[in-house]
Amino acid sequence: MRPTPCPFAAALAASLLAGTAGAAAPAAEPATRLDPVVVSITRAERLLLDVPASVDLIDGATLRDAQLRVNLSETLGRVAGLTVLDRGNYAQDLQISVRGFGSRATFGVRGIRLYVDGVPAASPDGQGQVSNFPLGAAERIEVLRGPFSALYGSSSGGVIALTSELRPQPLRLTPNAAAGSFGTWRAGLNAVGGEGGLAWAFDGSRFSTDGARGHSAARRDLVNLRLGFADSPVGRLRVSLNALDMPDTQDPLGLTRAQVQADPDQASPVALQFNTRKTTRQATLGASTETPLGSATLTASAWLGTRAVTQFQAIPVTTQAAPRHPGGVIDFDRQFGGADLRAGWDMGALTLTAGLAAERLDEDRQGYENFVGSTLGVTGRLRRDEANTLTAVDPYLQAEWRSGAQWRWLAGLRYSTLRFDSRDRYIVASNGDDSGAQSYNGLTPTFGVVFRQQPALSWYASYGRGFEPPTLSELAYRPDGSAGFNDALRAARSDNLEAGVKYAPGNALRASLAVFAIRTEDDLVVRTNSGGRSSFGNVGQTRRDGVELSADWRLSAAWSLYASAAVLRARFAEAFLACGPAPCTTPSVPVAAGARLPGVPARTAFVELKHRARWADLAAEWRAQSSPAVDDANTDSAAGYAVVNLSAARSFSLGARSLRAYVRLNNAFDRRYVGSVIVNEGNRRFFEPAAGRALLAGVDLTL
Fold first, then answer.
1. 331 in helix, strand or coil?
2. Which residues are CB-contacts of 468 (< 8 A; sequence separation ≥ 6)?
3. Residue 583: is the preceding peptide bond cis (ω within 30°)?
4. What is the 3-state secondary structure (H, E, C) of 258-287?
């Protein structure tokens, strides 16, 4: 299936290239200095030069301008060390990894902490999705990598936090829309306002696409609402509501190498046979307060929410005949909530923070056959019925000591306790009782030092101890692939070292360099592939060593350049046995010491050049990555690739209103490549091809 030109996009492109009489030229941005970057992802506002960690901040303008505003892959690929792979499969969401953490996730995000306006978008076990990130409302996204990610507790190989705009201001309404290739369109409304001590913000959108591949259509409705009260009885109060609805999202599944070579735009034949699809609904309500108490500040946040998922898989009927098989339809409802209470004391050179975080997740999970008689892709007999509970309690301490004008010392200590409980309610003679429970505990210390050699130059070093327990999904299947609690899994533990330098002189340049080394014990890997299910086990040790570099340079009032690059050597440090193609209940394929971790490209790079011409703002992006292995044994890999994206945007003055129109050409040279790989896929359907050339056009009208 090839891209279909959009008449609206073509017409708008022609008008931009020709120029429009009476249009106001966009004002040039000053080139003399980049504003100092202030980040809050370390739980307190600090200048970027004073943080002993790799932190990147992407502002809302970058997230939105000339973008579809649906996927984090549109902009987060610019962050060194962060790999964001667009599967082209909205049923399974993006594949995101930070320095190799999270690369094994076959769906959603695993091992990375996600936050929307301070509310977790991942469950306590570190499993989540980014479909509910409201990019149209974002004021900024902060990305934290390295040792200080452990400040957020277990399963925090990295942290991605979105903060939406919320401040008192005159009423501003911004209806917006975009349309393009593959029947893709998005329409939304952003509104902000407030005065005095009240602020409010609303963002709502609908996204729809036919998909670049067969059987990949999707629809997504997203609403984000925030209220802020500067002077409530408990101090500053903020309330947020985030809701997501994705009905019957089609899943084209991965392809084998032969299928990719024959037609990369096709869906897997079994996806059509079983009508594989997924419905997701989620809503989260959160509140946070900040209360001055003499010399201390008390900060409290609480949240609660629901998540419901129904997923139809392509598991053969004969496979489901096994007595202990859980079926080909996953159906669960989750209720989750939590709270984080902390107190901070500013004592001049010393700042202390003490807190307690607690989370709970209750899941009602069923499994059904995906057939009735000879009809496939429908809900059949019940094959699994269980109640799962996950609780997490984390006390923590943080301290910062400023020694003169040049030295800063930061330290943190967090103790995480997680308990998983599974109660089997589907007890028949052929099954027995599959109930089980397991607890995991981990102490995660962090330490860092910053030396401000000059006002514009800082050096830093840091250490952190990571702790990553299995997820509910990884605990859900025994080594033979049957439903039942896998209580043999151990938590992975990592030692994480990093050193770096940051440079932001009094001109238009900002640059950073980081080197790191990570040693992980008991890393989680796929142990068996049987009955359409994967079970997991532990391996002795893995290593991740790398270098990351980024630079943001305002060359002049009209030209700017942003570039980032990362080199990551991610390897198994010890040999072990892995499973081959399904069905496999006994690992027998040797994995040599030194084999690459699957799903982790060794090299990534991003370059963006912008030119602010009188008639339009022009941009060109170049994104590249090397070849990732598809499984533990490195039996195959996806080819490396480089793609070019182009965009043009222009602002128009309409009296008291303004309009910004843009066109974008993704994959300008129509490079056919694999966008992501499904790690250790038992049927060797590893490959998820990316879209070919795609045209997009959009408008933002500010009222």
1. strand
2. 101, 111, 126, 154, 155, 157, 491, 492, 493, 494, 524
3. yes
4. HHHHHCCCCCCHHHHHHCCEEEEEEEEEEE
Structure tokens at 651: 């602002």
E-only strand ranges, 555-673: 559-572, 576-578, 589-591, 603-612, 617-625, 641-654, 657-666
Greatest Cα pair distance in the chain: 79
pLDDT digits (tens, 9 = 90+) for 528-571: 776 667 788 898 899 999 999 999 999 999 999 999 999 999 99
CA distances from 79 to 227, 602, 627 (A): 30, 15, 19
Contact 92, 108 (CB under 8 A): yes
CA distance 24 to 21: 9
Look at residues 72, 17, 68 and name the one whose alpha carbon lies nearest to residue 180: 68
Res 175 pLDDT > 80: yes
The predicted-structure confidence for 420-464, as pLDDT tens digits, reads as follows 999 989 877 566 778 889 999 999 999 999 999 999 999 999 999
- 0.90 cut: is pTM over it? yes
Q: Is the alpha carbon torsion for 16, 21, 22, 24 positive or negative?
A: positive
Strand-pairing partners, residue 159, are 113, 144
Phi then psi for 265, rounded to 5 degrees? -90, -5
Collapsed DSSP state (helix, strand, coil) of residue 72 = helix
Distance between CA 513 and CA 147 in Å, rounded?
Answer: 15
β-partners of residue 109 are 128
Assign 9 to helix, strand or coil.
Answer: helix
Q: Using CA atoms, how far apart are residues 279 and 291, in angstroms rounded to an integer?
A: 40
d(CA 631, CA 628): 9
Name the residue among 133, 472, 138 with its Cα closest to residue 332.
Answer: 472
HSE value, Cβ hemisphere, 13 Å, CA-based, for 57: 21
- Residue 608 confidence (pLDDT) above 90: yes
- Across 276-381, the runs of DSSP E, i.e. the strands, are 277-293, 296-312, 329-347, 350-368, 371-372, 375-376
pLDDT tens per residue, range 81-112:
999 988 889 998 888 999 999 888 777 788 89
